[in-house]
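worker-3 :: picked Proteasome subunit beta
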Amino acid sequence: MSISTYNGAAIIAMSGKDCVAIGCDLRLGIQNQTLATDFKKVYKIHDRLYLGLAGLATDALTLNQRFQFKHNMYKLREERNMNPATFAHMVSKTLYEKRFGPYFVEPVIAGIDDDGTPYITGMDSLGAMETSKDFMVAGTAPNSLWGVCESFYRPNLGPEELFETISQCLLSGVDRDALSGWGAVVYVIAKDKSFVKTLKGRMD
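worker-3 :: tokens ->
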């Protein structure tokens, strides 16, 4: 078993019309043994930017603290929040600095710019970025997550429709993966409102 799948994870980011959503499962495990069912893998950077970290849980927690620190320093210096593209390049650079002894994580970044344009990107543990216009997945069940996203996704979804779509994709995907699941949490970010909802899933 790869160290990246040691704790299990499932993360999806999806874009809509002037909105974006990101969700993750809530399971924390050691291989097939479940330790906790309330472990969130998506972290709030600011009101319009969220970061999902799939992979080794200890590395994810460490990196979240580093990225929060770097964003706070940027905000003090520039007197504004990082936009999503700037933050994504900072994450990529941080990971590439450790390429000879990498963090075992797969970041997924979702946010909206000041004009409401959605931004989604994902990267590997070395920081190689790939942006997307529709959706991005990471974790231990990428094949099943890709499949359901390709089936359910439609362009230009509103916030409520986007929430429903990403929720169905996430719950359907983790049902086919033994290392993730036990419910999920979904964050939806739009220009005028943002909300978070917790989903109940199969508890097995």
